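RECORD TYPE: protein structure
NAME: Putative glucose-6-phosphate 1-epimerase
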Amino acid sequence: MKTEQLNTQYGIADQLQFIDGKGGFPNVEISNGKAKALISVYGGQILSYQPANEPEDLLFLSTRAYYQQGKAIKGGTPICWPWFGPDPEGLGRASHGFVRNRLWTVMGTHTTEDGATAVTLGVVNTPETTEIWPQTFELSITYTVGETLSIELKTQNTGSQEFSISQALHTYFKIGDINRVQVLGLNGSDYIDKVDGGQQKTQQGVVEFSEECDRIYTEPPAKLIIDDAALDRRINITSEGSKTAVVWNPWVENSASMGDLEDTDYQRLLCVETANAAQDIVNVLPGQAMSIKAHYSIER
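PREDICTED:
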């Protein structure tokens, strides 16, 4: 659907409009007095969120991100679904599933009672998706943009067979300096260290960064905090519907080897992901639905 049609059907005067984004993909542009945000209909992902009283964006978006069919956009919150990480069945399918690199459908927009703006995008099964993953489903994501940012990813099983999923809101947070960042709330939590061959470890104290980090924390608390001394802020992350949290930073070599990152981008990004990953597999019965939610706020 063209942006003109989308504006006619879903635009909200003085608050939400659809624009042509990079690569020709439609974007949702929000400015409602409480915050500004940019959401890509391609990939169904939010690219930017900045509260009105904040000098910096909450989210990191690579200046070298790809905006082309079949490629995921590096930054914001890519959606990993219906699996997180490598193909769980070893069939050669792409890592992190198939919804982060396809065009979603606009399902609705509205203004909430407190003046925030909500946008819902969706994906349903097609013959193409059935060849990749033979299930019948409706997937939707709702972004609520106000003084805080809320995301709900909802999976509905519209078929007659139970299916299993893993998933993640692969959120890239903008940080001032990776050497001066801590993640709080994980002390004593067990994790899988993917950099160290999947070894099972236990977090001692706060999470700090001096090398590549790729960890899946099992049974983390519902609230985590990114303490960013360089930007003089804390990012509060509250999750629902998940029993795992992923903490990732590519560090020097990986950042330099990725075509859609600048060599030094590892210094400016940190992923803390609300996820169902590793052994946190979700079974969805026919006719049933489940949601994973994340709520982000900034404090000084």
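COMMENT: Residues 3-299 form a domain with the Beta-galactosidase; Chain A, domain 5 fold (CATH 2.70.98.10).
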